[in-house]
Amino acid sequence: MPFELPENLHPDCGPVAWLLGRWGGRGHGDYPTIDKFEYGQELVFTHDGRPFFHYFSRAWIVDENGVKIREAAQEAGFLRCKPGGQVELVLSHNTGFVEVWYGEAGDGKLDVTTDAVVRTETAKEYTGGRRLYGNVEGDLLYAFDMAAMGQPLQPHLWARLVRQ
Known about the structure:
mainly beta, ten-stranded antiparallel β-barrel, heme
């Protein structure tokens, strides 16, 4: 699907402009404290001319044939763009935590690492992460490394999503 830059794109958002729109596909998950799983996912990045994107993601667990078994994670937030490809990401999750991320964008890549994680009383123990998003052959590939449940930072999720 072709992608066109919006006329009102804020200049600081140029390095992440390729993310704009709706993405969908499947991914895989693994972690020492979680059984392997597959999931479907939808990501949406929108922009209104100011130096940030609004972000929303929803996921659902699927079986080996891609049939939905149950709902899974949701997250929403803002990707805040600064001059020179520097970014801030603020995310809130249905599982009871909020994160602040910092990183860089450029050359079809977004690389962010957590600076702060705050959890509610009922949230599982999660202490930090790293996310890498890349534009590969027009698709959105990403990987999420996580430190949680007493485990060190290590791979947790990875997916390939296509523009919808």
